[in-house]
Structures are given as structure tokens and as C-alpha cells.
Design goal:
Helices cover 69% and strands 0% of the residues. The longest helix is centred in the first third of the chain and has 31 residues. The protein contains ten helices and no strands. The protein is an all-alpha fold.
């Protein structure tokens, strides 16, 4: 079984350690948000909490928590806009969010509505689905608990993530050359998150091509190790950067 494979335990260790780093980073950033009203810290914290949920859901243990399964769908849609506007605020420290930013929450609302059918299903029915899901990974993209094809969520979310990361790199390259410290921070952030998205391509390709189970990340321990390791690097940056003084107040 996968649980007895050393690669599984390595992946799990990376994920747990990364989660611990992320929690520490969240504490630092929430402190800065409440003390300085730094909206950027709130945005990146929301995005990272969604990522933590996304990483931790990749385990067979989810079958024991049927109530929380698929509840992360709307929150995953927040990662892209939260990270994008975090970078935007890094380069515009004295500005407020543009008025149109609420439009970026529409995919979140779409995801929120689509979790309703599973949420109102009987508990025993939920448990049965998750027991089947652990053995048949593609079922997670084929079940009927939703108003739209479940594959659409993965493809749409990934497509939006790519669009937002392109926007983040555009902000980076168009930024004032004098903002060297900020550009360095954004460079690290964009680079690690870009690698994370690149590794997730295997999931989307497996869904589109309707590949065998071995192609899915839960059944491919090599992919799982690298995604967990990338999450660990990102969380380490998140914790260390969160303990630094905010650029917003450093410039004042």
C-alpha cells in the first residue's frame, strides 16, 4: 500500500512541516494586519490558507472527515486574486484596492454554489463516496455532486491561476527599478508559486486526457514528493518573510 512506501512518508513529512511553517507565518501576518491594517498581509494569508487546505486534502485520511470534503472548492478560487493583489499592493504601498477588485470574487461565488449538492447529501452517502474515492481517484472528477462537471473546476481554477501568475510577473517587470528590495521579495514569491503551478500541470493533464490512476498525483509518489517539497519551500519563505517589517510601513 502507498502508506508503507518511504516516498509517502517523505511527502507527508514535507506537508506537515510546511503546514507548521505556514501557521507560524500566518500568526506573524495576522499580527501585522491587525496592528498596521496592512491589507496585503490579509490577502496573502487567505491565499495561503486555501493552499494549505489544498495540500492537506491529498491524503486517504479525508475519508474520515466527509463533512469537509469539497468545501475548499470556493476558497481555491481565491488564491489567484489574493496573490495577485498582494503583489499589486507591494508595488503600490500607499494605495487602496481598486474598485473593480470585487469582480474577482465571482469564481468564489460560483464554487460556493456548486458545493451545495454534496453538503446537503446524507452523511452515509458522503462516507460511501469517500470510501470509493480513496480506491478510485478519478471518481473525484466524475461524481455527480455538483451543478457542473467536476473536471471543470480543476481546469477553470488552473487556467485562472495561470492568468493571475502572468499578471504577477507583469507587475514585477513593470515595477519601478528603484524598488529593489520589494522586487527581490516578489521575485522569490512569484518563482516558488510558479514552480508549484508547474508541478500541478500533471493533475490537469491527467484529468483532460482521462489517464489511468497512476497518472494522478495521489497515485504517483514521485509527483507527490516534489509538490510537497515545493510547498515546504513556499511555506518557509512565507514564514521568514512574514517576520520582516512590512514594506508599507518601512517606506513611511
Amino acid at each position: 500500500m502507498m502508506q508503507h512506501n518511504p516516498q509517502f512518508w517523505i511527502s507527508l513529512s514535507f506537508a506537515i512541516l510546511g503546514g507548521a511553517f505556514c501557521i507560524s507565518g500566518l500568526l506573524f501576518r495576522f499580527y501585522r494586519f491587525f496592528k498596521y491594517r496592512d491589507i496585503g498581509q490579509l490577502l496573502i494569508s487567505v491565499g495561503v490558507m486555501a493552499l494549505i487546505w489544498h495540500v492537506m486534502i491529498y491524503t486517504g485520511e479525508i475519508q474520515y472527515y466527509p463533512r469537509i470534503y469539497n468545501k475548499g472548492i470556493p476558497f481555491y478560487y481565491l488564491v489567484g486574486p489574493c496573490f495577485y493583489f498582494y503583489v499589486w499592493l507591494k508595488f503600490n504601498p500607499n494605495s487602496t484596492l481598486p474598485k473593480y477588485w470585487l469582480l474577482h470574487l465571482l469564481p468564489f461565488c460560483f464554487g460556493l454554489i456548486d458545493v451545495i449538492p454534496y453538503a446537503i447529501a446524507p452523511l452515509e452517502e458522503q462516507k460511501k463516496l469517500l470510501r470509493m474515492l480513496v480506491e478510485d481517484i478519478p471518481l473525484g472528477f466524475k461524481h455527480h455532486y455538483g451543478f457542473v462537471d467536476q473536471q471543470l473546476h480543476y481546469m477553470l481554477r488552473f487556467g485562472l491561476a495561470i492568468a493571475y501568475i502572468i499578471g504577477q510577473w507583469r507587475l514585477y517587470y513593470n515595477a519601478d527599478v528603484d524598488a529593489k528590495a520589494t522586487k527581490r521579495e516578489v521575485l522569490i514569491f512569484n518563482s516558488v508559486y510558479s514552480i508549484y503551478l508547474l508541478l500541478q500541470c500533471s493533475i490537469v493533464l491527467a484529468i483532460i486526457l482521462n489517464s489511468s490512476q497512476e497518472a494522478y498525483i495521489l497515485k504517483s509518489l514521485d509527483k507527490l514528493v516534489w509538490v510537497s517539497f515545493c510547498f515546504l519551500l513556499f511555506s518557509l519563505w512565507f514564514m521568514l518573510d512574514g517576520n520582516k517589517k512590512s514594506t508599507l510601513y518601512y517606506l513611511k
